[in-house]
Structure formats: C-alpha cells, structure tokens
Amino acid sequence: KQEVTQIPAALSVPEGENLVLNCSFTDSAIYNLQWFRQDPGKGLTSLLLIQSSQREQTSGRLNASLDKSSGRSTLYIAASQPGDSATYLCAVPTSGTYKYIFGTGTRLKVLA
Amino acid sequence: ETGVTQTPRHLVMGMTNKKSLKCEQHLGHNAMYWYKQSAKKPLELMFVYNFKEQTENNSVPSRFSPECPNSSHLFLHLHTLQPEDSALYLCASSQSGGRTDTRYFGPGTRLTVL
C-alpha cells in the first residue's frame, strides 16, 4: 500500500532563503509525482508534475526532483518570498487509474 | 468563469438538513473528482466520474450522494450528516482521469455540520 510522507510538517524561514521540501513514498513503482500548493482555506494549485522517466522539472523559482529508486522527491524553492507562504503537498498515483495518494503537506511560512 | 468553480464556498448545516455542493469546470475535461480534506489528514478521494460515469466510490457513506449530469458539472448531495463530516470538500477535474493527468482543483466548500 502506497504511503506518502512529507517532512518537515511546518517550516518558517526568513525572506530570501533557499529551501527544500521533502516527499517520500513507499512504493517506487510510480507513474509520476505531482507537487501542489494550497493557500489557507483554498483549493490546490498544481505546481509541477514529474513523469517517472524524468529526474527533475523546473518552473520559475521552483525545481522538483524525483528519485524513484530511493522513493524520494524534493521541491526546491529559490530566493523565497512572503508570497510563497502556503502548504505544499505532494501526490503520487496508485497502481489504479484514478487515485492519487497525497502527503499531509509542509506548511511554509516565509517571514518578511 | 475559468478553471474549476465551486459553490457555495462556505456552508453550515444541521444534522437533519439536506444540502448540495456544486462544482463546474470550464476546462473541457472529461473526468471530475470529489475530495475531502480534514484537519491534519491527507486529502481523501471520495468519488471519480469519467465521461459522466462513476468509476470509483472510495467506500464513502451513503449520506454523501454524487451526481454528474454532464462532463462539466458535478454535485455532491448531503443528508443526515455527522459533525465529523465537517471538512473542506474539494472538486477537481482532469483531461481524462488517467495517471498522467494533472488535476485542477476548485477553491473548495468549507462545510461545518452542527
């Protein structure tokens, strides 16, 4: 059974710092991994989707890497800004077609 | 309207009430989903519809009843809920429901059951 873990659960950093969020999954036979952002009380916004054949994806200041063999993904945020404050979730699809398993998220606060 | 919209954004109801949540997607997608997000728990998939047909019911109690009249609209009918059903209910859509499809989420309905 696939389990997804995110560490740390919460993180506070001063503005301008580079930071890394971690996501671990127990079953390495995944098709892809997706990172989302969720603002308080809001829905999820897709940030990056990495296919199993890829090792990383970049979008602006965000870079996500995937190491299937070790069951890990990291989300790197460069030069963090207060607007980056949100909860970041990673998700992987199960062996079935439709079901994504989500981690519990990392709650990030970037201090001005 | 663009993307995925949900109404109402907030809902407070008693245990004997009947209410409905509405979701609409303007992306031309064929798959739609209901998720439940409770405090400090991972997102839980509730229902999946692909081309208007329900393809997954993730062991959800019958007091939650989904309806998908067409590929753009999804409803969640609620009746005789329990206080533990209080949560953020998120609707999402994707192109075809496949494993490689990105899910696009609505803003959610914050439900409180008294």
Structure description:
The complex is a heterodimer of chains A (112) and B (114). Chain A is mainly β. Helix content of chain A is 0%, strand content 57%. In chain A, strands 2, 4, 5, 9, 10 and 11 form a 6-stranded mixed beta sheet that branches. In chain A, strands 1-3-8-7-6 form a 5-stranded antiparallel beta sheet, with no helix packed on it. Chain A is globular, with a radius of gyration of 13 Å. Chain A starts with a strand and ends with a strand. Chain B is 0% helix and 56% strand. In chain B, the strands form 2 sheets. In chain B, strands 2, 4, 5, 6, 9, 10 and 11 form a 7-stranded mixed beta sheet that branches. Chain B has a 4-stranded antiparallel beta sheet with strand order 1-3-8-7, with no helix packed on it. Chain B is globular, with a radius of gyration of 13 Å. The relative contact order of chain B is 0.33. The model of chain B has no long low-confidence stretch (mean pLDDT 90). Classes of the chains: A mainly beta (112), B mainly beta (114). Chains A and B meet through β4, β5, β9 and β10 of A and β5, β9 and β10 of B.
Summarize the structure.
The complex is a heterodimer of chains A (112) and B (114). Chain A is 0% helix and 57% strand.
Low-pLDDT sequence parts of chain A: none
Order of SSEs of chain A: EEEEEEEEEEE
As a percent range, the share of helical residues of chain A equals under 10%
What is the N-to-C succession of helices and strands of chain B?
A: EEEEEEEEEEE
Q: Unreliable segments of chain B (pLDDT under 50, ≥5 consecutive)?
A: none
Rounded average pLDDT of chain B: 90
Specify Rg of chain A, calculated over alpha carbons: 13 Å
Distance between the termini of chain B: 32 Å
Mean pLDDT of chain A: 91
- The total strand number of chain A stands at 11
The helix count of chain A comes to: 0
Report the principal-axis shape of chain A.
globular
**What is the percent of helical residues of chain B?**
under 10%
- List the chains of the largest interface with their residue counts: A-B, 25 and 29 residues
